[in-house]
Design a protein that fits this description.
This protein has 263 residues and is an all-alpha fold. The protein folds into two domains: 45 residues; 206 residues, Orthogonal Bundle (MetI-like fold), CATH 1.10.3720. The protein is 81% helix and 0% strand. It is built from ten helices and no strands. α5 crosses α8 and α9 packs antiparallel against α10.
Length: 263
């Protein structure tokens, strides 16, 4: 249901809330970069060991085409892996909710899958599937499907029981109750799991690229490290952080559109 016009927050109010959320962390980041720059200038530390932020930004700008090219590779692996993870996570959550014996038997295996160290699994995937995109997608999927599955399954389990009983009283079948009651109420849980997953996704892709890759930011970081280009290593790390934050924000924006009834 749409809110009455007089109850909707004004543009100024929304802008003020956004500023409150954005300005403090931005000021802290600027202060940290300023302190970093000052330390490098005053300490006389070797610029190869620790380049100043200004030098990192300059190096990033000079190599922007190469960074952009490798970013596209890593983003492709990350997004495809996330799509596979969402499909697998939602499917498993629906299965766990529909069949309790399956939940009791499968849930411990799902937990156990998260104990597998990605630094060990990634090289094996590369050995089995080669240096292409397949092992990267598998690592991202393995690394991210669990929070999506658990969050969505929890949302389905805690859906309003009275609403479900009312649906059955009105003659609704299992599918109609799931579609009209459980899934809408579980969507906020799903997006909570997805926000967690996106912070893991690029890390999984990077691990897979470190294990063996022809491109991507993970491979680029290794090459720059071996060339003692600390400035470019840091530039790639900053770019990875920005891309991860952008995906996190994008999930939040999608949630606002999909879960419009949530305050």
């Amino acid at each position: 249901m749409n809110e009455p016009e007089d109850e909707r927050p004004s543009f100024a109010t929304r802008a003020g809330v956004t500023a409150i959320n954005v300005v403090p962390p931005a000021l802290i980041v600027l202060a940290l970069f300023g302190a970093w720059e000052l330390y490098v200038e005053l300490s006389g530390i070797n610029r190869v060991t620790l380049p100043a932020p200004s030098r990192v930004l300059e190096a990033a700008w000079r190599n922007r085409d190469l960074l952009a090219e490798n970013s596209v590779v890593t983003l492709q692996e990350t997004l495809i892996g996330l799509a596979a993870s969402i499909t697998l996570g939602v499917g498993l959550a629906l299965l766990l909710d529909a069949i309790p014996p399956v939940r009791r038997g499968l849930y411990p295996l799902l937990v156990g899958s998260q104990t597998l160290p990605v630094v060990v699994i990634a090289p094996l995937f590369v050995l089995w599937f080669g240096f292409g995109i397949t092992p990267k997608i598998l690592v991202v999927t393995l690394y991210t499907f669990f929070p999506i599955t658990v969050a969505f399954a929890s949302g389905l389990a805690v859906a309003d029981t009275e609403a479900q009983m009312l649906m059955r009283t009105l003659g609704a079948n299992r599918w109609q109750t799931l579609r009209l009651v459980q899934v809408p109420q579980a969507l906020p849980y799903l997006f909570t799991g997805l926000r967690i997953a996106v912070t893991y996704a690029m890390v999984g892709a990077l691990f897979a690229e470190w294990a063996g890759s022809k491109g991507g930011l993970g491979n680029y970081v290794l090459l720059m490290r071996n060339s003692f280009r600390t400035d470019m290593v840091l530039a790639a790390i900053f770019l990875i952080t920005v891309l991860t934050l952008a995906m996190f924000v994008l999930v939040g924006l999608i949630e606002k559109v999909v879960v419009r009834w949530r305050s």
